[in-house]
Automatic annotation (TrEMBL), chain B:
Source organism per UniProt: Silurus meridionalis (Southern catfish)
Keyword Ligase (UniProt): no
The name this protein goes by in its record: ER lumen protein-retaining receptor
Cellular-component GO terms for this entry: COPI-coated vesicle membrane; endoplasmic reticulum membrane; Golgi membrane
Cell compartment(s), UniProt: Cytoplasmic vesicle, COPI-coated vesicle membrane; Endoplasmic reticulum membrane; Golgi apparatus membrane
Transmembrane segments: 65-82, 119-139, 151-172, 178-199
PROSITE patterns tied to this protein: ER_LUMEN_RECEPTOR_2
Taxonomic placement: Eukaryota, Metazoa, Chordata, Craniata, Vertebrata
Single GO biological process annotation from the record: protein transport
Pfam families recorded: ER_lumen_recept
Homology family: Belongs to the ERD2 family.
Amino acid sequence: SDSQKKKDEL
Amino acid sequence: MNIFRLTGDLSHLAAIIILLLKIWKSRSCAGISGKSQILFAMVFTTRYLDLLTAYISLYNTSMKIIYIGCSYATVYLIYAKFKATYDGNHDTFRVEFLVVPVGGLSFLVNHDFSPLEILWTFSIYLEAVAILPQLFMISKTGEAETITTHYLFFLGLYRALYLINWVWRFYFEGFFDMIAIVAGVVQTILYCDFFYLYVTKVLKGKKLSLPA
């Protein structure tokens, strides 16, 4: 799912 | 990156620095829940393990290191350096009632059953409830130092700004993470009572004391 988008948030 | 996430991160950083300076300068952690600070150190440790595996940006890496460093320094000041001023009699929230359910839930509801992802999920769920021991302690002592209320205000504001950031990212990037959003909503709701008291009392120069 698009939540797999690289975890770029702190 | 958008203005809401940047402001949110700076608000979070401000909260962490305010608390650290308050304890360091006053050489006292009276009114501060050591349990909440241990939970925050756990949140950062389990969430930022990707420091070892992924490089996103200098900003991302440096903020993570600052968050981890300051949170451990705060725990050290509370439980070691200024241990004599730690108010253990009022910091009595049963954190196992938070860590165990959150740990179980992170195994049941996650995006991917991999160690790093489960630890990330655990940190998201834990962060949502990590402030409860602190709020509980304030309800037990019936008051909070004004500097402590500023710490709580910026800490609560940071995740509220992240909620707006997620609306922004959904609208402009089609990106959303349901786990982070739901936990962020819960986390922000837990501050509502405090926000009300902060705005109606502290911002009017009064001391924050309960019952309101």
